[in-house]
Specification:
Shape: globular
Order of helices and strands: EEEHEEHEH
Distance between the termini: 12 Å
Largest sheet: 4 strands, antiparallel
Number of helices: 3
Radius of gyration: 15 Å
Strand content: 25-35%
Strand order of the largest sheet: 4-5-1-6
């Protein structure tokens, strides 16, 4: 596989909303609509950010930290990240190089030529 892929990580929490939709659902929907190569939403057991507010699951409250991971080509990920500026509740976004060591055939089908 010769394509250079990157991993975009978007940090948010379960309690963040974009209108009537949870932020993580909106981001995932946009990623699917933009035909990103792949996306996964991960729940953290515990997390905090710049405010030091502790995010964790409680009995009657869902406030866990979430990480949305999206893999694709760098230019597409940068454009996608820029398009999320209208969504409140995104705490941090990072972009890093990844080495794909399995599933290259599936990824090749998703990435544009």
């Amino acid at each position: 596989m010769e394509k250079q892929v990157k991993l975009l990580r978007i940090y948010t929490d379960e309690a963040a909303y974009y209108g009537d939709i949870k932020v993580f659902e909106e981001v995932a929907s946009r990623a699917r609509n933009d035909r990103m190569a792949g996306a996964t939403i991960l729940q953290a057991l515990f997390g905090f950010g710049r405010t030091a507010h502790q995010h964790r699951r409680r009995i009657f409250e869902d406030d866990q930290s979430l990480v949305i991971e999206i893999i694709d080509e760098e230019a597409r990920l940068r454009a996608f990240a820029s398009s999320l500026g209208d969504i409140p509740g995104i705490a941090l976004m990072t972009l890093e190089a990844v080495e794909v060591i399995g599933g290259e055939e599936t990824l090749d089908e998703k990435l544009p030529e």
